[in-house]
């Protein structure tokens, strides 16, 4: 670790209690170089000075160290193993032990696609309410967690709106049939 990198590491540890020593040096250097370019600093020395004066940049540097990539069924081999081996075994064991809840923690899940993928697999297992499933999804990136929460709320609002629209359509259909029934009843043509 260079003297400048140590200075940045010490600064982040002191101001934000964030330890960058856990990151691969090559990955860290690439992230650092990107932040230097994006802040228009000329070199690492200038960047360290800028970083020590700007808390937002400290958060931006830390944010650049998080890999925020997520997609449904991202690793097909992993999800195939979960679907065909891990989850059926886990469910069977829980039921055999007369336990009716499974808790799953999806860590470092960025936008939550992996957690939703687990939920889809479990739904397709057609457990018929024999066992309660709770999936906890977390990510160190506050930005990603907020984005996932926002997407959840938007999905819930959309589902609620669709349900309201379906209820209105159903009510209109019922009213139409009731009017037709009443009309036929009045005319004595009810068959």
Structure description:
The chain has helices spanning 3-16, 25-38, 44-53, 55-64, 76-96, 113-124, 142-187; strands at 101-106, 132-137. With 191 residues, it is mostly helical. It has a two-stranded parallel ribbon. Helix 6 (113-124) links the parallel strand 1 (101-106) and strand 2. Helix 1 runs parallel beside helix 3 (44-53) and helix 5 (76-96) packs across helix 6 (113-124). 12% of the residues are buried. The model has no long low-confidence stretch (mean pLDDT 84).
Can you tag this structure with a few keywords?
single chain; 191 residues; mainly alpha; two-stranded parallel sheet; 7 helices; 2 strands
How would the blueprint of this fold be written?
Layout: H1 3-16, H2 25-38, H3 44-53, H4 55-64, H5 76-96, E1 101-106, H6 113-124, E2 132-137, H7 142-187
Parallel strand pairs: 1-2
Helix pairs in contact: 1-3, 5-6
Question: What structural category characterises the helix and strand content?
Answer: mainly alpha
Alpha plus pi helix count = 7
Low-confidence stretches: none
Average pLDDT for all residues: 84
Strand order of the largest sheet: 1-2
What gyration radius follows from the Cα positions, in whole Å? 27 Å
Give the H and E element order. Answer: HHHHHEHEH
């Amino acid at each position: 670790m260079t003297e400048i990198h140590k200075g940045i590491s010490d600064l982040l540890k002191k101001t934000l209690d964030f330890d960058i020593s856990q990151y691969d040096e090559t990955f860290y250097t690439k992230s650092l170089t990107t932040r230097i370019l994006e802040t228009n600093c000329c070199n690492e020395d200038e960047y360290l000075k800028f970083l020590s004066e700007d808390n937002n940049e400290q958060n931006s540097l830390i944010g650049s160290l998080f890999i925020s990539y997520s997609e449904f069924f991202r690793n097909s081999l992993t999800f195939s193993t979960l679907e065909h081996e891990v989850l059926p075994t886990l469910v069977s064991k829980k039921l055999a032990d007369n336990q009716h809840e499974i808790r799953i923690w999806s860590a470092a899940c960025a936008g939550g696609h992996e957690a939703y993928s687990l939920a889809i697999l479990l739904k397709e297992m057609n457990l018929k309410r024999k066992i309660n499933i709770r999936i906890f999804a977390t990510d160190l990136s506050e930005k990603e967690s907020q984005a996932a929460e926002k997407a959840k709320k938007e999905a819930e609002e959309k589902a609620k709106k669709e349900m309201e629209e379906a209820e209105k359509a159903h009510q209109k259909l019922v009213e139409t049939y009731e009017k037709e029934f009443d009309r036929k009843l009045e005319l004595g043509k009810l068959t």
